[in-house]
Amino acid sequence: MPGPLPRVAISLALVALVLWWTDVGNATARLAQAEPGWLLLAALLLTAQTILMALRWRLTAARLGLGIGRVRAVGEYYLAQAVNVTLPGGVVGDAARAVRSRAGAGLGTAALAVMLERLAGQVVMLAVALAGFALALVRPGGIGWPDGTGAIVLAVAAVALLAPIALSRLAFLARLDRALRTALLARAVLPRQATLGLAIAVLNLLAFAACARATGTRLGPEAVTTLVPLVLTAMLIPLSIAGWGWREGAAALLFPLAGATAEAGVAASLAFGAVMFVASLPGLLWPALSGSTERDLPPRETER
């Protein structure tokens, strides 16, 4: 994998390429005229999302025998978010979160809790996108889907359903399979995991929609549940910093399907990245606060 400097260069190059390919003047004008109220709403939505993700991590860790207090979970998750959006790769903060929370259960369990929590988020987002696509194909709306979209959606759904079955049969993933069943799929925890996952996904999608609205684009429900998940998924490509460049490229390609311009997609995506960065900055204060805060907290409890 490329080192930090190449990833920074890739992000900058991709953003520059997208701006060159689109009308840079239109995109920057949209950003300059962005409505602060909608950006503030997006920041509040992302803040609520971070808190809920921290609670999901705490719940997942507790099911694996790793107790983490609520305040610490939120602080550590904020710190991980801040690191992820400022350093290349997008996972350095998560790795540090596992290391910092390993006491009492070991690094392997702590890393497993972090991995399962992130996996749960991607699975729920995929489920939301597939549901949105299914509804859009049954009840066509304002998006002009390319030919073959239905077949692609069915193929992705089939893979999503069959992959867990196939993976569970691989011996070297036996521990992961057991942890998955314990932390995410057990009857005692599944309703809470599903509720948290859906709420987190909705907050993320609405935050992006708010950034789009701030820059002059109103996205309908169909676009929010189908196009936006695809835009956000582009951020998972590791060759960048926090998805910069890939997210803007995906938005430029996908927004025209909803009747908007590529420049509108770029402006919305840049606004979302900026708001996400600002909303994560409080996490940088956690290392300084955690020492005094933890002294005032009761012993950590383990949720079952």
Question: If you had to describe this structure to a student in words, what would you say it looks like?
Answer:
The chain is mainly α and 304 residues long. The chain has one domain (11-291). The protein has helices at 4-21, 24-32, 36-63, 70-86, 92-100, 107-138, 149-168, 174-185, 190-214, 221-233, 246-254, 262-280, 286-295. Helix 3 (36-63) packs across helix 6 and helix 6 (107-138) packs antiparallel against helix 7. The protein is globular, with a radius of gyration of 20 Å.
Give a summary of the structure in a few sentences.
It contains 13 helices and no strands. The protein is mostly helical and 304 residues long. The protein has one domain.
List the helices and strands and how they pair.
Layout lengths: L3 H18 L2 H9 L3 H28 L6 H17 L5 H9 L6 H32 L10 H20 L5 H12 L4 H25 L6 H13 L12 H9 L7 H19 L5 H10 L9
Helix pairs in contact: 1-11, 2-12, 3-4, 3-6, 3-9, 3-12, 4-5, 4-13, 5-6, 6-7, 6-8, 6-9, 6-10, 9-10, 9-12, 10-11, 11-12
**If you average the pLDDT, what whole number results?**
85
Q: What is the alpha-carbon Rg in Å?
A: 20 Å
Instruction: Give the structural class.
Output: mainly alpha
Shape: globular
**Total DSSP E strands:** 0
Please outline the major beta sheet: none
Question: Which stretches of 5+ consecutive residues score pLDDT under 50?
Answer: 292-304
- The rounded distance between the terminal residues' Cα atoms is 39 Å
Order of helices and strands: HHHHHHHHHHHHH
